[in-house]
């Protein structure tokens, strides 16, 4: 590959003093009712003659080279649909699942516009969770590496002062969770988004599911009306429709799938029907079957996630937990170890099911079935991505029959049962039983150390500080 020429975005002149609160709210009230007549453009599949290169979409050479350096060989369906429209200056509603390439679909048009008219606080991306915010920022910096893009992340659980210092350096792109962004808009002296050019609301359905609605309303009131807005969501609920009407102007809707319960052909799905008391036993059996492959094990609760992590480590597996009661540094550390393959088993609650960039997951095990079919689809979507093959196996016990039938109904097909060898499973019983007893003691010590730290998760409404931290 030829050497990439770096072009540095010039620092713009310092901005004028911030508007007063009264001026900002006056401006917001004038901007509160944008024209939102939505135009449908909703192909269920990629265009008939799908573009073979990013250059065909209208992207400049430097961004095409950046795509190549990031390993993006050809545009995905959502990129092929969204990027040309975004380059025309249209507001967009993008309906796409995690793993479809939607981050690049909104990042690339913003970066191209930034090169034409560089300025600080040029783009704002709102994300529902801390991990997703960091992931999006990394994508902007990677795709914008040839033009020296500066981005900063504003999320809960991190020091406000250091974030304020980062804002003082006038980044081009801000990626934030809504609660922490509003904290800075209200409390950080000199910080304003009155010159913002682009707003992205990623995983909008999840933003609203996590009760960010009132905070989003406050943020939208202080943003300029003259901006481009992109809203990306896996589903189009009534709440998302309302958010769209309040924030977008004459948007075009693009989608890449006709069914929200569609799965890829390279995914091998099955279930294993077992007594509840033998779940741990069959889990160890399956991990031995897939030894050396990267695996995500999904659990319903934080307690079970932590217990399984202890249990599997005691048996010699490289398991690491990911859930909402870990510190931010511990969560990022867990993701880093799993991505680098220094740990090949991630035991997670649904904090990891959507939005996170975890490439090359070979196996997904649903140790606990989720409460709804949509979450099931998001979980198994962690594997068999970008044309690769993958395996998803779900545990169903005597207590899960109705839930499993609902999932199969949503999928529109009966899944095969995984052919476990019972004799081989029962050989593991003694070692598993011993590890279970030791894991109980480990959990007791863990809970004692944690003390009252976890109690805040059970006390009604969360503070802004914790809203971007998944409870599960």
TrEMBL record:
Principal subcellular localization: nucleus
Domain DEAD-box RNA helicase Q, chain residue ranges per copy: 52-80
EC number: 3.6.4.13
Annotated InterPro entries: DDX47/Rrp3_DEADc, DEAD/DEAH_box_helicase_dom, DEAD_box_RNA_helicase, Helicase_ATP-bd, Helicase_C-like, P-loop_NTPase, RNA-helicase_DEAD-box_CS, RNA_helicase_DEAD_Q_motif
Segments of skewed composition (Basic residues): 452-462
Enzyme class: hydrolase
GO cellular component terms attached to this protein's record: cytosol; nucleus
Keyword field: ATP-binding, Helicase, Hydrolase, Nucleotide-binding, Nucleus, Ribosome biogenesis, RNA-binding
Location relative to the cell: Nucleus
Catalytic activity: ATP + H2O = ADP + phosphate + H(+)
PANTHER family: ATP-DEPENDENT RNA HELICASE RHLE-RELATED, RNA HELICASE
Subunit text: Interacts with the SSU processome.
Name recorded for this polypeptide: ATP-dependent rRNA helicase RRP3
